[in-house]
Amino acid sequence: MPAIALGHYNLRGDRVTLEKLRDFYLRYVGLTAGPRPLKSFGYWLYAGGRDVLHLSENRPGEVRQTALKTGFDHVAFACTDLPAMLAILQADNIPYRHATVEASPGFATQHQVLFSDPEGNGIELNFVEANI
Domains in the chain and their CATH numbers? Predict the structure, then answer.
């Protein structure tokens, strides 16, 4: 049975880290905090009415391996209002890279804004030229 969509991704950490990540994703990605049906500590962040990022507290005794090499590079979000997002990143001195992917058959021109969250996870914000 094939996957039909990405449900969410999950980042884990201690409470201080989760709060830092929550605030970062709310401000610099434009996600919104929403309901979370679990009793454990954490946050569910939403885009377009869907939970897309879960922030979960480490389990008791769990130690996160921060030096572990993986193939993970970034998570991408479809966004609108490129000028407003760039203004926020610039005002807060968040380092980013802005790349343009030119239109090709079946694809509109896209503007990509790439940066990292406070834990070093890569983020890509995609702005289709028609939505800028």
Answer: 7-60 (3.10.180.10), 73-132 (3.10.180.10)
